[in-house]
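[Meeting: bench + compute handoff]

Bench side (C.D.) handed over the final construct sequence. Compute side (W.E.) agreed to return the predicted structure before the next meeting so the bench team could plan truncations. Sequence as handed over:
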Amino acid sequence: MAKKLHKPHDAFIKNLLSHPESASAFLEQALSPALFRQCILEKLVQINTSYTTPDLDEVVSDIILKVPLEGQKDEVTISVLVEHKSNVDHLTCIQLLTYIANGYNLQKTQKQRFSVIVPVLYYHGRGNWKFRPLHQLFKNIPDSLLPYIPSFQIEMLQIQSLTREHIHSIAEAKLRATFMVQKGMHDQLVAIKDYVRVIDALGPYEKGNFLHSFFVYVLNIVNFDKPKLIEITSQLTKEMRTKSMTLYDELIAEGKEEGIAIGIERGIEQGIERGIEKGIERGIEKGIEKGREQGRQQGSTESKYEFARKLIQRNMPLADICELTGLTEEQVKSIMA
């Protein structure tokens, strides 16, 4: 099976929304009709920035779109937040509060004109997700406290809430194909049935990089092994069948190369760790040995001094004491003092 990307949705959705026609069709599905009608779609652009923070990176990734509105001087910032969680999280309102605040703070620090941030939560998980605003986290609070709770509006696009009839009615082929795959990604039988129809629909885009990106995406979210892929691509044209299998083999090769590279890297890391562990163990052993030797030396010296004291008490001559104990004259005299 093809290699799994850490966040396979991120790169693909960013690629998808980099196509103006796809981004416009996406906003038509995601925004309220009133806001969408105001957007001057001919001037829609994707901005290479992010409002996420390190603690949010594992939760969402964002794609920032800027679009001017009819009759307005300023643009609106539309943040498409791709949700990484597979389960519904009713505390997302807290994460979005952090996200929106960080977005405005970046606008301030970068000395930009303030632009209203419209968050679009793009969810492709199994469950039906009804977003809970912040004030719903509190129970039985008096109306006098409501003004102290931050309130903000979001747009939400849930793939599983879209009917297949609605998805098939979307005119833009790339977005329609994406929604079809995401709709069936949790059921392999459905995904297999849709695959041929999706690839056929994308035939006009095979000369660009979108088909390659789409194919990589499909193989990362649906578990197609090679025999199954051969079976289902038999219904495609020869050209598209060959392209599908070629891309599959390339991904397998890339996965093997990545696996070897990761194996080497991990082997080096483990070797260093083991080397450090062995070094520590050997250092401890050496320390113990040295301590023992110092102890023996110190014990031996102390015994010589004690023996010398006894000989001094018996009025033994200095030369004889030095000869018997191995101490120098200075050492013996220091004991006599």
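W.E. noted at the follow-up: The beta strands are 45-47, 60-68, 75-83, 117-123, 155-158. C.D. will use this when planning the next construct.
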